[in-house]
Specification:
This protein is an all-alpha fold. It contains 8 helices and no strands.
């Protein structure tokens, strides 16, 4: 793939991934065949900042976990009212990393 396309992708979508993963993502994108580029263009990533805001506002309902695809954890969080509030507070610090990890998993599915 062209380096300019890869660099543009990284520049536009770098905030959705952990910074230490960006060099690996760039290398995988460089080695990706051109026919997969169209499927990569339609891939939607979750915004970690938006998920954090949702977690702060209505995190005790598990909505943040449902949005990133952790359905099981979302149900448990909903049933326990956010682990009696403790899990909700812990998620304020962990949810951005979990969102970026889910985005990386979604990208890996396309790159395989």
């Amino acid at each position: 793939m062209e380096a300019s396309k890869v660099d543009m992708f990284i520049m536009n979508n770098g905030k959705y991934f952990e910074s230490y993963q960006l060099p690996q993502i760039r290398e995988k994108l460089m080695n990706m065949p051109d026919d997969k580029w169209s499927s990569l263009q339609f891939l939607q990533f979750k915004d970690p900042t938006m998920i954090l805001i949702i977690s702060i506002v209505i995190g005790s309902l598990g909505i943040d976990r449902f949005m990133i695809g952790d359905t099981t954890l979302g149900i448990i969080k909903l049933i326990t009212c956010g682990g009696l509030g403790i899990w909700t507070i812990v998620d304020w610090f962990l949810i951005m990393g979990a969102t970026k990890e889910k985005n990386t998993e979604n990208l890996a599915r396309v790159l395989v």
